[in-house]
Write a structure and sequence with these properties.
14% strand
């Protein structure tokens, strides 16, 4: 299976989805324990949630599961959140800190390197190429990294996660106008929301977000209670919840694109 699925558009917007894939090669699946094979920590149905919200958007989706290798982690293995609990480049546990590999079958450094080359690298090569392509058209690109996570995960955070969690690594990954537009959009929903809270942007956002070079990146982590019928198996999508959430996401994305165009008009000429 191809590690990445691409739908090309010609707008400045690139929607990336590193965690919606559920493909696990048979040789890797055989090493997962029963808990690992549930694939609990998938960003369930995110590709359906965002489908068609913005005309002519480009979509770059990983087809492989994050338990194979996490496409939103630094390929060097460096932690995204030093000193905080998190999962690594190839997770050893669920977000509840439950082991996912059969005893003695955890991937070693050689195996991690193999998966990096086979899955992680092609995904990011494709994403970088699409960003370069739309930037060549418009002079700038907007990377919106699509995520979701269970609303209550005590091992990672206290209490209940807000519905909308915007990450810009403290404002470093996009123009301030774009961050402000995204935040205004989430506030307009009157749902719970936070800017650069527990999730302030993963490796994708931090790696590609170079506003001085005309590439703006922002991560949106949605609490799964906002769009799933249940956050337990079978993790079904709620059409009623989506009917409310999809127009709100459209508004947020539209605000971001207007802000990006405004930022481009005021960008210094090189």
């Amino acid at each position: 299976m191809d590690p990445v699925r691409i739908t090309r558009g010609n707008s400045p917007l690139v929607l990336s989805s590193p965690h919606t894939g559920t493909y696990v090669p048979d040789d890797i699946r055989a090493k997962l324990n029963d808990e690992g094979q549930r694939l609990r920590d998938t960003d369930w149905h995110i590709e359906k949630l965002y489908a068609g919200l913005i005309p002519d958007a480009t979509c770059v989706q990983a087809t492989f599961h994050r338990y194979v290798i996490d496409a939103n982690r630094d390929p060097s293995g460096k932690s995204l959140y030093p000193g905080q609990t998190t999962t690594g480049l190839v997770p050893l546990t669920t977000f509840d800190n439950t082991p996912i590999w059969r005893e003695g079958e955890e991937p070693d450094a050689t195996e991690v390197a193999r998966r990096t080359a086979q899955f992680h690298a092609p995904y990011h090569a494709a994403l970088a190429a699409e960003l370069a392509r739309v930037k060549a058209i418009h002079g700038y690109a907007v990377l919106y990294d699509c995520h979701s996570i269970r609303s209550v995960i005590p091992w990672l955070f206290e209490g209940t996660l807000p519905d909308f969690n915007i990450g810009t690594d403290g404002g470093r990954t996009c123009d301030p106008r774009i961050e402000a537009a995204a935040h205004a959009g989430t506030q307009a929903t009157r749902r719970t929301e936070v800017l650069n809270g527990r999730f302030r942007g993963g490796w994708t956002t931090r790696h590609y977000g170079q506003p001085s070079q005309g590439i703006h990146a922002i991560q949106m982590e949605l609490a799964q209670a906002s769009h799933l019928a249940s956050e337990e198996p079978p993790f079904a999508l709620s059409e009623a919840k989506c009917a409310i959430l999809r127009p709100q996401l459209t508004d947020i994305l539209t605000r971001i694109l207007h802000a990006a165009a405004e930022a481009a008009r005021h960008a210094p000429q090189h």
